[in-house]
Amino acid sequence: MEIKFKNIKERQVAYIIATGRAHIPHIFGELMDYITKNNISTIEHYYCTFFNNTLDVDHEELHYEIGIPLTGDVPGEGRIQIKKIPGNQVVSTIHKGSYNQMNHVYHTLLEHSIKNGYIISGPATEIYIKGTPEVSRNEVSVEVRFPVIKK
Question: Domain of 145: which CATH number?
Answer without folding.
Answer: 3.20.80.10
